[in-house]
Amino acid sequence: MSRKNKHQKNQKGKGTTLANQADRYVLYEKAVQCVEAEIDMVDETFQSLRSRTARILREDFCGTANTSCEWVQRRDDNQAYAVDLDKKVIRWGEKHNIAKLNDDAASRIHLLNDDVLTVDVPPADMVLAMNFSYQIFKTRSQLRNYFGQVYTALVGDGVFFLDAFGGYETYREMEEETEHDDFTYVWDQARYQPVTGNILCYIHFTFPDGSKINRAFAYDWRLWTLPELQELLTEAGFARTQVYWEGTERKSGEGDGVYT
Fold first, then answer.
1. E-state strands within the chain
2. What is the torsional sign of CA 198, 131, 244, 46?
3. Same domain, 53 and 127
4. Beta strand 246-248 pairing with 212-222
5. Residue 121 has pLDDT above 80, yes or no
6. Which of 103-117, 159-173, 195-209 has the lowest mean pLDDT?
7. Residue 228 contacts by C-beta under 8 Å, 6 or more apart in sequence?
8. Is the distance from CB of 85 to CB of 113 less than 8 angstroms?
9. Which residues, in sequence order, are CB contacts of 212 under 8 Å at separation 6+?
10. Which residue range is the domain that position 194 belongs to?
11. Whether residues 140 and 41 fall in one domain
């Protein structure tokens, strides 16, 4: 055995694999989020719909509050209320994201370890529920209750933004890999139950040294369809819903990031 191989073996024995050194929240932000594009989309759409500029944003299920941090940096009078029940991820976001902001921007983001169903914050121009997080509510009454809470939390001409995923592959049990510079992101649709509409998904991360973070994140959701979402939003009080559909790149068949 060469010296190099001995060293690699010893390093593995000490637990210093790439997986052990990685931070799952950093990986998530790199693999799943593009907060710059997300804020561009909601900011421009709000301006187009309301002919004014949004100032106050509420980010539900905020996780690391990465989106809220991007929002408060866009304009000097922007404010964000970032809400999540998970105290661990809230603390991580405070340490790793909010701490990077200048004092003025940091003072305009309000990080709340609270329940989106009961949180009490000033009326918002926009409420965001991104990355399909609202699908944690599995019954019509639960989801309608959440939508109703959002409706009352908005200013008179406020806008609620949420994303959805679908298509025939959504109902398949499958894994999809996306390569990044120093890791591979694996989206795992582990189980779908057609009778209930419930879906169980995981995120895994694999690394060039063969190590892996298995089930870095787990999602036990109900897969809501667009017609169901629109019906429940109407029942909750919203006068109008608008669906923005992502375009498709001709060569790859993948989404092009343009929503119309």
1. 56-60, 79-84, 109-113, 124-129, 154-162, 174-179, 184-193, 198-206, 212-222, 246-248, 255-259
2. positive
3. yes
4. unpaired
5. yes
6. 159-173
7. 140
8. yes
9. 19, 204, 205, 206
10. 168-221
11. yes
Mean pLDDT of 17-42: 97
Specify the number of domains making up the chain: 2
Q: What is the CATH number of the domain that holds 120?
A: 3.40.50.150
- Do 90 and 199 reside in the same domain of the chain? no
Instruction: Determine the Cα–Cα distance for residues 213 and 107; give it in Å rounded to an integer.
Output: 35
pLDDT digits (tens, 9 = 90+) for 213-248: 999 999 999 999 999 999 999 999 999 999 998 767
Task: Answer yes or no: do 160 and 35 share one domain.
Answer: yes
For residues 231 and 106, state if they share a domain: yes
Helix (H) or strand (E) holding 73: helix 66-74
pTM of the model: 0.89
Domain membership of residue 31 (yes or no) is: yes
Containing H/E element for 105? helix 103-107
One domain for residues 109 and 209: no
Cα separation, 225 vs 227, in Å, equals: 6
Residue-averaged pLDDT of the chain: 92
